[in-house]
Write a structure and sequence with these properties.
Layout lengths: L15 E5 L2 E4 L4 E4 L2 H4 L8 H13 L11 H12 L5 E7 L2 H18 L7 E5 L8 H6 L3 H4 L10 E3 L4 H4 L6 H19 L4 E6 L2 E2 L6 E2 L4 H12 L2 E5 L14 H4 L5 E4 L11 E6 H9 L14 H16 L2 H20 L5 E6 L4 E5 L15 H11 L2 E2 L1 E7 L2 E8 L10
Parallel strand pairs: 3-15, 5-6, 5-7, 7-10, 10-11
Antiparallel strand pairs: 1-2, 2-3, 4-12, 8-9, 11-12, 13-14, 14-17, 16-17
Helix pairs in contact: 2-12, 3-12, 8-9
The structure holds pyridoxal-5'-phosphate.
Amino acid sequence: MTHLLHRSIHTPPRRAVSASGISFTDDKGQTYIDASGGAAVSCLGHAHPEVIAALHAQLDKLAYAHTGFFTTDVAEELAAHLIADAPEGLSHVYLLSGGSEAVEAALKMARQYFTETGQPQRRHIIARRQSYHGNTLGALAAGGNEWRRAQFKPLLMEAHHIAPCFAYREQQEGETDSDYAARAAGELETKILELGPDTVAAFIAEPVVGATAGAVTAVGDYFKRIRAICDRYGVLLILDEVMCGMGRTGYRYACEYDGIAPDLLTIAKGLGGGFQPIGATLLSRKIFDAFADGSGFFQHGHTYMGHPMAAAAGLAVQQVIARDNLLANVQAMGATLNAQLQATFGQHAHVGDIRGRGLFQAVELVADRDSKAPFDPARKLHAKIKSEAMARGLMVYPMGGTIDGVRGDHVLLAPPFIVTEAD
Ligand code: PLP
């Protein structure tokens, strides 16, 4: 008997009782290797002693202070730490409790930027079809996963979607990376022109697509082109790094790899490594100045934003990652993981693609390698993989994605950054 509404009512989850390092233990004594960090969250693994010590120390000092009354040393220090090596132009941090909240704030910041700067007609949000930006209504409206959106459509704000940059599915035979990048990015320009450039507020995209497609990296200079198109039409660029950011790809901010900087950047998951619920929206000096010179505030806020315990977790996690140079391990172990996946599954009759960056890797499963036809969704392959893996003591993150209406299954692997070759 349970009074919890679980994610799946008819298959309630196993009961976890403890976790340390890269493994979990349940109430039956079975252990599980956490090869997905939950959902790409637990970047330092579990029970990291320094994070626990930082949390105890913060709890002894100050557990909660409402941000309408106080700021705190720990929140200020975390913001400074995040900005110190943030992409160029990002100057301020808005602390929240998770990824969806960070995306909601980014969408509203984009809108308020234009009301503050005398362009109130800019209201359209453009996103990509193969994307996930969260489950709250604004983030769900922006996201491009039709399955998640379908029944809530009557409640969703208007948003516009273009094709993702997804080479395995959409790059044509004989098309170079550069030509494909130009074609995929060109969809943004076409959409902006169709809507009317002075009505578009922002374009939002994940630098590496996570849950909906499985570690899909862009090809060539796709993101440089996207940045240039946004600049050409005065459209703000929001990069959603909730899943791929904070070192997951081997770069602290995933967009470093692409050599671009957004106007707004969202982070969560690996920011607090699961030790506390925390997310953040980073904003550029240009947006900060518009608020500062205009109304003097961002018209938003949550009771738990800037929570000292969450900030303490985020600061401790990020300090350990920096001090122990864990991003080098993410790059090295990511290459090892990819090579081992290729060696083990590369020729498998039902493996279509193996891809990713850093410790953010995925295997796409297909019914037929030649045609790339996905499995029938009624088979619920991803659910079976998850339960079979759990039965064998392994946590992976399988999903059925949607590619322009075609469902495909993939398995995402996102082990903690402390993972070793032996693990
Ligand atoms: N954005 C991206 C890219 C995500 O992967 C997720 C969660 O998976 C979210 C936003 C939503 O974050 P949360 O589940 O913390 O609300």
